[in-house]
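F.,

This is the one I mentioned.
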C-alpha cells in the first residue's frame, strides 16, 4: 500500500463514524428535516443516482452510518454489529426502516467496490451502500454532527458514534458503538417509533430475556465479539463458531490472536492466513483488549464450551433413552 494511501486511511479512521438517523413515514413535505439536511447527490452500490434527503430520508425511517471499505478494524466490527441489528429488525428493514452506509472514501469506494463489500458481509435488501463527491459527503457529516477533525492517535483509537434519530420528531440520539444489537434494534424499531410498533415481527427484541448476571468475560463477549461469533451456534456469523477453540488452539497462539490478530496476519502466521482465506477475507479486528480482558474472554469461551457440550451430551443421552424405551415397548 502506498504511503499516501496509508496516511489517507489513518485520516479517514478519525471520521469512520456511525449515525443512525430515523425518519418517519410522513410525506416528504412534512418532514422536519427538509430544510435542514443537505439534499446532496449520491450513487448507490447499484449505480443509481439519488438525492440524500428527497430519496433516502424524507418520509422514511432510516439508519445511516459512515464507513470506508478499506478500514481495517472498527468499520468491519461496526458493519458486523449492524448486520445483527438488521437481523433483529427482520423484514421491517426495507419496509419501514431503511439502512444506509455512506462512504467517506468515495474516491476508492466506487459503486462496484461497495457492491462487493456488501456481498462479503452478506447484507440483505433494505440496506444500501452509497458513494458520491467527497466535499458533499464532508458537508453531510458536518450537518449530521458527525464530522470530526483529525483527532486520532497512533492506535487509530478514534471516536466511533452512533446517532439515532427521528426525522419527523427531530429526535436524534448518539449511541456508543459498543451497544448490544438488540438494544439498538429496540431503539430503532420501538423507541423512535414513539413506542408504537408493528408487532408482527417484534418477537426478537420485545421478548428479549432479562439480562442475567454477566461475568466480565461474558459481558465482553456479548459486547465485543457476538456480532461476529457464536459459541455452539454453528456457522451463522461472519467469523467461526468458537466452541472448543480454547482446547483446539495453542494457548500462546490464542492469547496473541486476541491481542493483535492484525499483526499476526501481517507477519504471515499460517493459521491466521488460513482463517482469513476461509472467512471471505474479512479480517478479525484488533479490538485493543487489555491482557486481563483477554484472560476473561478465554475463561468465558472455555466455560461456555463446556456448558454447551454438557447440554448437548445430556440431550443426546435423553434421546438415546427415549429411543431405547420406544424400542422396548
Ligand atoms: C468484525 C467481526 C469480528 C469480531 C467483532 C470479532 N471477530 Fe473473531 N474472528 C473474525 C473472523 C472473520 C475470524 C476468522 C479469521 C479471519 O478472517 O481473520 C475470526 C477468528 C477468531 C478466532 C480464531 C478461531 C479459530 O478457529 O481459531 C478467535 C478465537 C476469535 N475470532 C475470537 C474473537 C473474540 C474473543 C472476539 C471479541 C473480543 C472476536 N473474535 C471479535 C471476526 C470477528
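My design for it:
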Amino acid at each position: 500500500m502506498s504511503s499516501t494511501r496509508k496516511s489517507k486511511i489513518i485520516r479517514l479512521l478519525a471520521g469512520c463514524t456511525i449515525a443512525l438517523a430515523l425518519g418517519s413515514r410522513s410525506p416528504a413535505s412534512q418532514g422536519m428535516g427538509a430544510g435542514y439536511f443537505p439534499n446532496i447527490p449520491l450513487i448507490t452500490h447499484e449505480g443509481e443516482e439519488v438525492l440524500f434527503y428527497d430519496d433516502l430520508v424524507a418520509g422514511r425511517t432510516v439508519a445511516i452510518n459512515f464507513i470506508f471499505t478499506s478500514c481495517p478494524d472498527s468499520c468491519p466490527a461496526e458493519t458486523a454489529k449492524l448486520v445483527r441489528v438488521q437481523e433483529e429488525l427482520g423484514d421491517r428493514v426495507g419496509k419501514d426502516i431503511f439502512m444506509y452506509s455512506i462512504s467517506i472514501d468515495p474516491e476508492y469506494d466506487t459503486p462496484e467496490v461497495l457492491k462487493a463489500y456488501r456481498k462479503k458481509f452478506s447484507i440483505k435488501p433494505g440496506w444500501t451502500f452509497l458513494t458520491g463527491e467527497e466535499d458533499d459527503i464532508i458537508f453531510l457529516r458536518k450537518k449530521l454532527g458527525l464530522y470530526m477533525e483529525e483527532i486520532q492517535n497512533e492506535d487509530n483509537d478514534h471516536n466511533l458514534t452512533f446517532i439515532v434519530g427521528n426525522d419527523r420528531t427531530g429526535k436524534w440520539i448518539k449511541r456508543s458503538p459498543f451497544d448490544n444489537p438488540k438494544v439498538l434494534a429496540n431503539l430503532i424499531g420501538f423507541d423512535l417509533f414513539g413506542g408504537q410498533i408493528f408487532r408482527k415481527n417484534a418477537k426478537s427484541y420485545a421478548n428479549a430475556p432479562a439480562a442475567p448476571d454477566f461475568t466480565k468475560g461474558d459481558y465482553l463477549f456479548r459486547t465485543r465479539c457476538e456480532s461476529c461469533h457464536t459459541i455452539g451456534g454453528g456457522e451463522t456469523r461472519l467469523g467461526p463458531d468458537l466452541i472448543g477453540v480454547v482446547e483446539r488452539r495453542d494457548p500462546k497462539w490464542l492469547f496473541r490472536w486476541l491481542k493483535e490478530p492484525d499483526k499476526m496476519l501481517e507477519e504471515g502466521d499460517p493459521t491466521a492466513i488460513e482463517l482469513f482465506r476461509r472467512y471471505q477475507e474479512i479480517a478479525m479486528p484488533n479490538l485493543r483488549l487489555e491482557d486481563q480482558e483477554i484472560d476473561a474472554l478465554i475463561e468465558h469461551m472455555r466455560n461456555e464450551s463446556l456448558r454447551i457440550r454438557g447440554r448437548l451430551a445430556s440431550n443426546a443421552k435423553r434421546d438415546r433413552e427415549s429411543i431405547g424405551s420406544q424400542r422396548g415397548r
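The CA atoms of residues 88 and 203 lie 9 Å apart.

Talk soon.
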